[in-house]
Each structure stands twice: as C-alpha cells, then as structure tokens.
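On clarity, I found the account of how folds are encoded harder to follow than it need be. An entry of this sort, consisting of the sequence and the corresponding backbone structure tokens, reads as follows:
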Amino acid sequence: MGTKLDMKHRERSRRTDDERRRRHVEQARRLIFKEGAGINSEHVKRILNEESLVPTRVSHLAAK
C-alpha cells in the first residue's frame, strides 16, 4: 500500500466520522434526492468540495 512515507501520511491525515461530516453528507443527499439538485450543482459542490466528500452513507460506521 505504498511506501513507509505514504503510510505515515495516511495515518496522520486519517479522516474521522463525526457529526459535522454526516450533516454535510445528509444535506447534500437531501438536495440531490428530495429537491432534485444535480450532483454537480453549485449547491451540492459548496457543501461537499471543501473536504472532498461524496454523498454516500457508510452503514458499518457507527458514531462514537
């Protein structure tokens, strides 16, 4: 999975699943699925692009 330096970088920059991240994903999903916004619309991009998020829920992750 890459060099030792790559692995160190991955460990240091690991994302955490928190309320803020889930809230942004849910906002984007609501815009896409309930309000008909396109995935590439400015509204959705504004919510997701800052952290390079995608509007996907991951069911096996539980909030701590």
